[in-house]
Design goal:
Elements lengths: L3 E6 L7 H17 L4 E6 L1 H5 L6 H18 L7 E4 L5 H9 L5 H5 L2 H9 L8 H4 L1 H10 L5 E3 L5 H17 L9 E3 L32 H9 L20 H9 L2 H7 L6 H10 L4 H26 L3 H30 L3 H4 L3
Parallel strand pairs: 1-2, 2-3, 4-5
The structure holds adenosine-5'-triphosphate and magnesium ion (MG).
Length: about 350
């Protein structure tokens, strides 16, 4: 079987470097390896509405921002089909049929959703749509028969939920229509879930602790310089801790030996730098400056490409609409198969 890859992001803000290391980098690698039949990238506006239903402007305006981030990072519309989730109304139908296969308590047990419910302080007023968004993710995946899903580790419970729905559907309706998807996690463990600049567990658009891919150089510098390090590393001579130290975590995600040659030739690699920090005598300013230089090297060409692309927003929407039209045809065909498997394809009963 040839692979069908599907991934996506919620248009709740511009994309940040957590997205870059957590999923964009592997998407671009997969795209260029070419080992797939179809590669879909979805802008999940309908899912974003589940916790932003009263903030339409945020969701609407960020569709373009996310698309610009994709293209600037190197996702190629000649290889990838981009689409906007709400354009594919069939996805809502998939979701509706799957809702019968998932219990309320199963949804309440989803660890990512649980964390998000606490963060968003919903209390007892959890919107049903929000609680059910893992079901809609199963719809997004199965509507295109996707089998490979590049994600960060916060998405693992969603992929597991999708596999359960697939098994349940195939068993209840005695068929083998749906395919169980597999996640693709980043190769580097640090990138599974990049923490925020404040040291919080996850860099997230909704938590305001992000370095955005599009941040200007001066903003990037200011964010790196005010980053959380080791609170006990006060004097340069103090021994420092690299564990939980955001600067070193980001270095783990971005550093390559070539950057030492260019910016810190007195060290060969990250292990040497970490050893010096741990024994004392290495100041925070020096490591922050190094990190800034690396991030700036990675992000400058992306930032420049993005500015060019942003001059013609209508061209970006053209790409999104063309992809949405293409995706709709596929979802429509697969919805008919789904209804046939359930047994509610009434019209076909009377066809000769
Ligand atoms: P929101 O706060 O609105 O949920 P988000 O920052 O969590 O936004 P999403 O659009 O929900 O971003 O996530 C899109 C993809 O990026 C998912 O595959 C997710 O696992 C990955 N991702 C998001 N944040 C990180 C992170 N900090 N580290 C690694 N991967 C991440
Ligand atoms: Mg999220």
């Amino acid at each position: 079987m040839k692979n069908i890859i599907l991934t996506g992001d919620r248009p709740t803000g511009k994309l940040h470097i957590g997205h870059f290391v957590g999923s964009l980098r592997s998407r671009i690698k997969l795209q260029n390896e070419g080992n797939y039949e179809k590669f879909y990238v979805m802008i999940a506006d309908a899912q974003a509405l589940t916790d932003n239903f009263d903030n339409i402007d945020k969701v609407k305006n960020n569709i373009l921002e996310v698309a610009l981030d994709y293209l600037a990072c190197g996702l190629d519309p000649n290889k990838v089909t981009f689409f906007i989730q709400s354009e594919i109304s069939e996805l809502t139908e998939f979701t509706f049929y799957y809702m019968n296969l998932v219990t309320l308590s199963r949804l309440q047990r989803n660890p990512t959703v649980k964390t998000e419910i606490n963060q968003k302080e919903f209390g007892k007023s959890i919107p049903t749509g929000f609680l059910c968004y893992p079901i809609s993710q199963a719809a997004d995946i199965t509507a295109f028969n996707a089998n490979l899903i590049p994600v960060g580790d916060d998405q693992l419970p969603m992929i597991e939920q999708t596999r359960e729905i697939v098994r349940s559907f195939n068993s209840v309706y005695k068929c083998d229509l749906l395919v169980e998807p597999k996640e693709i996690l980043p190769e580097n463990k640090t990138c599974f879930r990049l923490p925020g600049t404040d040291g919080k567990a996850k860099m997230s658009k909704s938590l305001g602790n992000c370095i955005y891919i599009s941040d200007e150089e001066s903003v990037l510098k200011q964010k790196v310089y005010s980053m959380y390090t080791d609170p006990n590393h006060i004097k340069v001579s103090d021994p420092g801790n690299v564990e939980g130290n955001v600067v070193f975590i980001y270095l783990d995600a971005f550093c390559e030996d070539k950057y030492f040659e260019k910016y810190l030739p007195e060290y060969k690699n990250l292990d040497e730098l970490k050893a010096h920090y741990t024994r004392g005598g290495l100041g925070d300013m020096k490591i922050k400056n190094f990190l800034f230089n690396i991030l700036n090297d990675v992000l400058t060409p992306i930032r420049e490409r993005r500015k060019e692309l942003a001059k013609e927003p209508e061209k970006i929407f053209e790409i999104l609409f063309k992809g949405s039209d293409e995706a709709k045809v596929v979802a429509k065909t697969n919805l008919l198969k789904l209804k046939k498997a359930i047994g509610i394809d009434y019209r076909s009963y009377f066809k000769k």
